[in-house]
Design a protein that fits this description.
Length: about 375
């Protein structure tokens, strides 16, 4: 591709010396599991998120599942989330033994529609899991109010929103728990898998720490049934280096997004909506086109790589047919899945390619 969707190597090249030095420090220490690097990163990223506690875990899916288990949520319980997220969100709910229940999204923000939330609550509902999709915070205040009324937990899925702000507060420190992924493509990405849980609740933090390592308070003595899900030292060391640059990378993402908006404002595309409560971090720059597949094919011919996040809502995927949802059950999520396309955007991207992408889009629109 002349214009790739993402180039992770360019970020490594920029930070090569610091990353290599951090890795070398881990090897020199001889400590590879739950050592000084993890402890330091837990403090630093928790502070960044405005949370009292931070716990590193194996990946973002585990973060969600362990957060649910720390709240005592399991078999027979229901957790409300959205159908237009990555399947990992639902996989985590089922990993905890609970049942996912879907609520449709707002067509403009693409995040959970609080106005439809109350109708989905049953006596079995135990938690709401909003997803800060594409780096845009979901509208948390009305969800928190509903959660208080019904004695529910709010667990933020922050996998795509490192550094995003809701009413000036970092996501991850607003609900009962916040869950992050450090998959390599994320705004703050490791060079492998990694996850993180934030909370301001001392008891929940202690339960997560026990759950991530076999329920051990001391080695080989389990006080509860736990798991093995730990952020390793090498990834923590790499993430500490990258965390120093996260704000600057997010500023760059917003600047690139602003250029897209300027270049595409007269196009036929439906652009992102940013509510007044949100400062997004543009993990992805997602637009909508009624002729999405044809547009992607045209851009591909011009050497411009695009992706779709995500092409099939979870309730219509083969693996979840037993949930018995029919086409039309969640019309906004379904419409978005048929129209959305993610355009190239990463901090190291040359801004001059955006007018080229816009030109390709205008050329497509004039060709019919």
């Amino acid at each position: 591709m002349l214009i790739p969707f993402l180039d992770l190597k360019s970020q490594y090249d920029t930070n090569r010396d610091d990353v290599n030095a951090a890795i070398a420090d881990v090897f020199a220490s001889g400590r590879f599991i739950l050592g000084e690097q993890v402890a330091a990163f837990e403090r630093e990223f928790a502070d960044y998120c405005g949370a009292r506690h931070g716990i590193g875990v194996g990946n973002g899916t585990d973060a969600l599942a362990l957060a649910l288990r720390a709240c005592g949520i399991g078999a027979g319980d229901e957790v409300i989330t959205v159908p237009n997220t990555a399947v990992a969100t639902v996989a985590a709910i089922e990993q905890a033994g609970a049942r996912p229940v879907f609520v449709d999204v707002n067509l403009d923000t693409r995040t959970l529609d609080p106005h439809q939330l109350e109708d989905a609550i049953t006596p079995r509902t135990r938690a709401i899991m909003p997803v800060h999709l594409y780096g845009l915070p979901a509208d948390l205040d009305p969800m928190l109010e509903i959660a208080r009324t019904h004695n529910l937990r709010v667990i933020e899925d922050c996998a795509q929103a490192h550094g995003a702000l809701y009413h000036g507060k970092p996501v991850g420190g607003i609900g009962d728990l916040g869950c992050f992924s450090f998959y390599p493509t994320k705004n703050l990405g490791a060079y492998g898998d990694g996850g993180f849980i934030t909370t301001n609740d001392d008891e929940l933090a202690e339960r997560v720490r026990l759950l991530r390592t076999y329920g051990w308070r001391e080695r080989d003595h389990s006080i509860m049934r736990g798991f093995n899900s730990r952020l390793d030292e090498m990834q923590a060391a790499i993430l500490r280096v990258k965390l120093r640059h996260l704000d600057e990378w997010n500023v760059r993402r917003r600047a690139l997004a602003a250029i897209y908006v300027r270049e595409l404002q007269d196009s036929e595309l439906t652009l992102s909506c940013v509510p007044v409560y949100a400062l997004p971090v543009y993990h992805l720059f997602v637009v909508r086109s009624a002729r999405r597949d044809a547009l992607r094919a045209h851009l591909k011919q011009r050497g411009i790589e695009t992706l779709v996040h995500y092409p099939v809502p979870i309730h219509l995927q083969d693996a979840y047919r037993d949930m018995n949802h029919q086409i039309g059950a969640f019309p906004n999520a379904e419409r978005l899945a048929s129209e959305i396309v993610s355009l190239p955007l990463f901090p190291e991207m040359d801004a001059s390619v955006i007018p080229q992408i816009a030109e390709g889009i205008r050329e497509f629109e004039m060709s019919r």
